[in-house]
## 1
Amino acid sequence: MKTRKDYTERQRQKAGDLLVHREVHACVSSLVDELMKAHLLDDDLGFDPSEFPGFTFHACPECGGAMEEDENEDGDSIWVCEYEGCKHSRQEEEPDLESLEIYEWWIVDGFLASNLQANGEFIYNDYGPAIWGRCTTGQAIALDHVIQDIALGLDWIRKEVEKC
């Protein structure tokens, strides 16, 4: 199967656009921010992002990406960066724990929510629609690497972008 590098920037953006138009429904950043300021989410619904899985992660000192604990050939504990372009690893102590910085909140379909969560993105879906805590801002969602990677993993999108 092709990787994202096998596609042109135009094809990657088209793939992202196709996925976004189908799976991303509404920006609810103002709503979530106001509810958090009024303490309505954390008091009434128990919403505290820092307590959810995926909100904190062990940060790679090289790229800032998430690191996972693994074992080397000798069975010793080693921390490896999950980011495809980095692959930094170290055997010393556990890396620092960092928190995600969420800039935007979006209602997304369950399919996309599952895939985003599998790719380390923050999803809140305890009370109704799945809400994605996007850690990027200032660019179209279709340009996010995670969106393009998910999109290019779908046969129907790959077939569509390969026509470009």
## 2
Amino acid sequence: MPRKSAYDWSAVDWSLPTKEIAKRIGCSAGLVSTARSKHAPETSLKPVTHSRHCVICGAAFVCSPSSNNSTCSPACRSERTRRQALGGRPWGFNAKARLATKGQTDNLTLGTPAAWLSPIAGPFITNQEAKIWQVIAPDGIPRTIRNMRRTLINELGETEGIRVERILTRMAFVMRHGGDAWTTRCGWTLTAAPKYPEQDTGCNAIRGVVRED
């Protein structure tokens, strides 16, 4: 035999809010909410819903306004996850061409080649960001070199020039961090950490004052 409830739900005024009813009869709001759904379901507040369209199949589905769901079913959700793992929709050739054309203004089309030919911005010894190096070459002669990579490529060739430049760059890294074990290697001696020149109005000028790297 079912146990009789301690509350007379038939005498409750279900038009009142749940918390107000719980306060009046001395019970929890959860108990009142359960009793409302059983004894007066027509007074229960219906949840607010919102209609959306699935991003995979386009079908309409209902969800709460605060929901982050963008798919209508587990199958569409799995498909969306699969596409995201693949990096989304791949770019087609025509789409890439349109985007490239959109970004190529007249100034940009002319500016890039001009920058490569500029003694200030191009791959030259006079580049404004080229560092000044103090080294002793394998022949024992102290040298001050600006733009070490370009100078070594011009003198030793591309392969050997890049190899030596990488060695000197590693030596400079160790020196800047307080070490001196690699200040001499493969015949080359690094006497000071490379520095940037103070910029002058002329692209070929190097002032005596330098700033730290």
## 3
Amino acid sequence: MCAQRLKRDTEIGAAGLARLFSRGKRPTISPEAAEKLPRLHVNVSLLFDVENIANGLYSPLTKFMGSEDYTSVLNRGRLANDEPWSIPIVLDMNNSDISGIREGEMVALSLVQGEVHSTVGVEEIFSYDKKEFCKRVYGTDNANHPGVLRTIEMGDTLIAGSVKVLRPLRTEFDKYTLSPAETKSAFREKGWKQVVAFQTRNVPHMGHEALQKAALTFADGIFINPLVGPKKPGDFKDEVILATYEALIKSYYPKDRVVLGKENLPSDLVRREVVETIRRYDNPLVE
């Protein structure tokens, strides 16, 4: 049963990547040409969403959701094609920011002060009910809930469309960043067939060490995946978490049996939690 589930989920992920990177799906545009497009200013979290759609982390998503997928996810926890997905991944804007933009056009995305990061081919522009969003996704519309507060602060209109990354974001810990394709490649290069993933928001302690050492007794290798970015108050700093794992790998674990890697996830802690659940259980990294 588990093998069948793994095969099915891997096929879903592989199919998503094949759709995403197949040629001819989206027009090619240079960064210079993109500077002349109508521009929408967004936050870093949305740009991370763009990159995660583009690199396959959000597979089977291949674009910002349209109304059909959006409604299906809210009502059923599944995309319109019946693939599991539990939270809308959407591009939200205020009406005043998109006046003059029409479906069928291409727009550029960037931070308020910055070069064009990416483009979106606008396929659909539609409105949504924030209260319904909150109740369906978070089970409450109480603004004390961090996800509800974020939703309240979102724009009033959603834009659906395929994305193209032109200038990826740079972060302090880029050397640790691995896309799904890069992670799979690292596993293949090491000849790993069975991998145990260990996700953490803390520095390693004796309990972590015991679990990881136990995993090495039956698996080919372990993938250590620290959550880097905003966390709850009192959590360890990112640089401390990464430095301690670097020391552990360098001085204690067999180097050829450990991969340390992270991805760029949105700053919304609730979304991070949901995406990580999807990543762990519905989008395996090993083909």
